[in-house]
Structure to design on (706 residues):
């Protein structure tokens, strides 16, 4: 107890910061999710769990939740495999490697909204360059192109592609950092024992990447689950709820329907889902333990 | 390692907590500090164009010169953000004193607004067009000051119609026929531009459903799922199915589609007064003309939209300052240039007369007597509006017109 008091001046600012930017918003979100808030923002009193019942009872809730799972699994998996390959490449010595390594950072450094908008405009019928290209090489017969972002399926697929694109740099660099900690002797020993390149990679290098990969996956899961801008831009004009994830649905509650109470309730659900996923992941993979 | 673990835990929680941050929408911005002597008015307005901020700054400068004891703070937001900003500010107990927006009935119902006659002089109040005032009332009390208005008309690409040998339509059947002829020109040309995407689906819906004799209801009840409305919705489907429109009508937003019209690839599309200016600046060579909106049987009709100014009560101590601001704002020398610069229609009688010989606005001003408005005084209109934006575009898909209307009505009834 005495130690704690002594430590307080040092940890105080950090505790205050966490309370202000993490605990307070969470508390407010929980509070709002149990209130009846009018469209103009007035609090009309508590309603218990009615907001949660309304959100879960919404006829598209389960499809949206399922789509969120697909979104997270596909994006994270593609990102991971892409990054493993890319990191292996960037770990080899070749002329111009430094330039290539820098180029990989670009999607990370650019604003996500900007990157998505570039792709979105490229996909527009009539003037998008991706559409023009596909028309020119004869893959699309309609002269104005295909409305990629006008159909739930294709818009969602393109959104996933953009999400993988912007997630690659961080993941690649995490794995690259891991690759550089793999001792050269282990690889050399494998080679002397006559192991092929593929065998060396899967049996010697990959196991040593375990902690790098598992941390990268953990952070990606949280990031991708909470990603709004890409889907918002790519699927924003699609009517109905056939391309929504939990995040875009929260946004629709808040922005379009101005139901802050329902948006908060769905946020709480999303928050619990993320915590659940992370808890299970940490439990099963134990990413933060030594190999 | 233990330390690393804790760090990882904190990181995970922090990242996960962004969910909370994005969703709770808390954080009223400041800007309401009172100056020592006199009153400060907070003004929250949307951006109609790149010029909006400058126009307001001019108004405020002129006003402050005449009323040195009142200071006006201006906050300009995009239309996309406007409604969440106002909701957040009200929730944070920091409502602006004067707000320029669309729907006001929800605020009136929450008793946040001054009745208009308490914050304007009798002269200013009497200068509004009666039809606009009727549209700004809740239970007989006016809560919104009609600010600027727009009506719709059919923009026709004369060159395309001539090439296709099509007539300018007055009824739906003629529209279908003309649009199909234009579509058959090929080369990516579409006959009729039908934007049912989320941006402004409610407007295209009104043009069709009301043009067939339907309505969205009145101040007492929102009625979407009616036989009259169904007729319009089914004709929309017919237009799409017979290839008279551009592809993917259900998910096409209005502004980008009108860009295509300006580029000369669309035969006919519904446009607004500012569309005239857009064509003039982007493609002055476009051969086009403006016509009344085709309806089922050719009856004249247009969709009118008025944006309103409203005065929030807050602490109730700024009534006088607000009154002097509104009276200044609606004097012809201030009001007419403002409306003209933004390319919209005025809501006062005197300004309408003054602008009557403006060639670009004439077709729209003509339509105003037949204008019908959204039932925006009904508190449920907000729900209906968002339901149209979210669901009406499904007409472009496999859903039947009946199912779409039923779904929208159900959403409205939920509130």
């Amino acid at each position: 107890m005495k130690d704690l008091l002594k430590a307080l001046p040092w940890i105080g600012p950090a505790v205050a910061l966490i309370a202000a930017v993490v605990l307070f918003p969470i508390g407010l979100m929980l509070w709002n999710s149990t209130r009846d808030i009018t469209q103009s923002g007035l609090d009309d009193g508590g309603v218990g769990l009615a907001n949660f019942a309304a959100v879960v009872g919404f006829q598209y809730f389960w499809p949206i939740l399922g789509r969120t799972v697909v979104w997270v699994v596909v994006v994270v998996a593609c990102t991971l495999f892409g990054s493993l390959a890319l990191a292996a490449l960037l770990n080899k010595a070749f002329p111009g490697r430094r330039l290539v390594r820098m180029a990989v950072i670009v999607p990370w450094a650019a604003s996500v909204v900007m990157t998505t908008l570039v792709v979105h405009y490229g996909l527009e019928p009539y003037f998008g360059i991706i559409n023009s290209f596909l028309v020119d090489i004869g893959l699309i017969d309609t002269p104005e192109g295909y409305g990629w972002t006008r159909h739930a399926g294709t818009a969602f697929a393109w959104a996933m592609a953009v999400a993988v694109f912007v997630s690659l740099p961080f993941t690649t660099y995490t794995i690259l950092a891991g690759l550089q900690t793999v001792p050269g002797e282990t690889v050399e020993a494998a080679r002397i024992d006559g192991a092929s390149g593929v065998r060396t990679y899967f049996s010697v290098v990959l196991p040593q990447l375990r902690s790098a990969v598992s941390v990268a996956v953990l952070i990606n899961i949280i990031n991708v689950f909470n990603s709004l801008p890409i889907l918002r831009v790519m699927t924003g004009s699609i009517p109905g709820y056939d391309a929504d994830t939990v995040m875009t649905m929260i946004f629709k509650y808040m922005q379009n329907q101005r139901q802050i109470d329902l948006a908060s309730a769905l946020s709480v659900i999303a928050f619990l889902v993320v915590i659940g996923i992370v808890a299970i992941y940490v439990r099963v993979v134990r990413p933060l333990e030594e190999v | 390692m233990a330390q690393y673990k804790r760090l990882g835990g904190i990181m995970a929680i922090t990242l996960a907590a962004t969910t909370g941050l994005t969703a709770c929408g808390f954080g009223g911005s400041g800007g309401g500090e009172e100056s020592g002597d006199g009153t400060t008015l907070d003004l929250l307005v949307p951006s109609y164009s790149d010029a909006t901020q400058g126009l307001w700054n001019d108004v405020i400068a002129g006003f402050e010169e005449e009323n040195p004891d009142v200071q006006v703070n201006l906050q300009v937001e995009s239309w996309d953000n406007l409604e969440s900003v106002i909701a957040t500010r009200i929730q944070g107990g920091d409502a602006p004193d004067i707000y320029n927006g669309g729907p006001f009935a929800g605020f009136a119902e929450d008793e946040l607004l001054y009745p208009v006659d308490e914050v304007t002089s009798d002269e200013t109040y009497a200068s509004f067009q009666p039809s606009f005032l009727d549209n700004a009332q809740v239970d007989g009390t006016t809560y919104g000051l009609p600010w600027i208005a727009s009506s719709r008309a059919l923009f026709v690409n004369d060159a395309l119609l001539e090439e296709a040998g099509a007539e300018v339509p007055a009824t739906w059947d003629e529209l279908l026929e003309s649009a199909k002829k234009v579509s058959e020109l090929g080369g990516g040309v579409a006959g009729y531009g039908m934007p049912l995407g989320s941006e402004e689906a409610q407007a295209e819906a009104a043009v069709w459903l009301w043009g067939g004799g339907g309505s969205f209801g009145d101040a007492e009840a929102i009625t979407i799922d009616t036989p009259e409305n169904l007729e319009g919705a089914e004709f929309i489907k017919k237009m799409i199915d017979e290839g008279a429109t551009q592809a993917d009508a259900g998910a096409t937003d209005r502004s980008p589609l009108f860009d295509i019209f300006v580029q000369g690839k669309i035969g006919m599309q519904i446009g607004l007064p500012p569309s005239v200016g857009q064509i003039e600046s982007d493609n002055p060579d476009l051969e086009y003309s403006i016509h009344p909106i085709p309806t089922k049987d050719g009856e004249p009709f247009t969709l009118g939209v008025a944006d309103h100014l409203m005065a929030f009560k807050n602490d109730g101590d700024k009534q006088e300052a607000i009154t002097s601001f509104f009276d200044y704002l609606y004097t012809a020398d201030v009001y007419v240039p403002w409306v003209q610069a933004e390319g919209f229609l005025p809501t006062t009688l005197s300004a309408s007369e003054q602008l009557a010989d403006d060639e670009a606005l004439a077709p729209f001003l003509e339509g105003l007597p037949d204008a019908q408005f959204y039932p925006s005084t009904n508190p449920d209109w907000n729900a209906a509006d968002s339901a149209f934006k979210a669901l009406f575009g499904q007409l472009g898909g496999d859903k039947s017109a009946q199912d779409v209307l039923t779904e929208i009505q159900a959403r409205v009834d939920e509130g």
About this structure: Strands of chain A lie at 35-37, 43-46. Chain A has one domain: 25-285. The CA atoms of residues 3 and 65 of chain A lie 46 Å apart. The first strand of chain A starts at residue 35 and ends at 37.
